[in-house]
From TrEMBL:
Recorded superkingdom: Bacteria
Provenance organism: Steroidobacter agaridevorans
Name this polypeptide is given: HTH marR-type domain-containing protein
Length: 87
């Protein structure tokens, strides 16, 4: 499951078949990981179809839409504060 979660940072929309190929795992393993991530609300299904359904990591998508620059600015500010260079 954590390999899938890590992958979502660079590829926030996936299918179970794509995970099988990308992570070189079995279909049941990839499907179980996706099911767990859906239960944890990390992944959300797109559409109502049962086969070849895509799932998206909505928080990663939100970050991309709202702008990663603001997040990086916040991280830089926190690092400066911790380093004692807060002015």
């Amino acid at each position: 499951m954590w390999r899938v979660a890590h992958l979502l940072l660079g590829q926030p929309v996936v299918t179970v078949t794509a995970l099988v190929e990308r992570l070189e795992v079995t279909f049941p393993s990839a499907n179980a990981a996706v099911a767990t991530l859906v239960e944890l609300d990390i992944l959300r299904p797109q559409g109502q179809q049962r086969r070849n359904r895509a799932f998206h990591a909505h928080e990663v998508m939100n970050l991309l839409y709202t702008g990663i620059d603001a997040v990086l600015d916040d991280v830089a500010t926190l690092r400066n504060y911790r380093a004692g260079s807060w002015t």
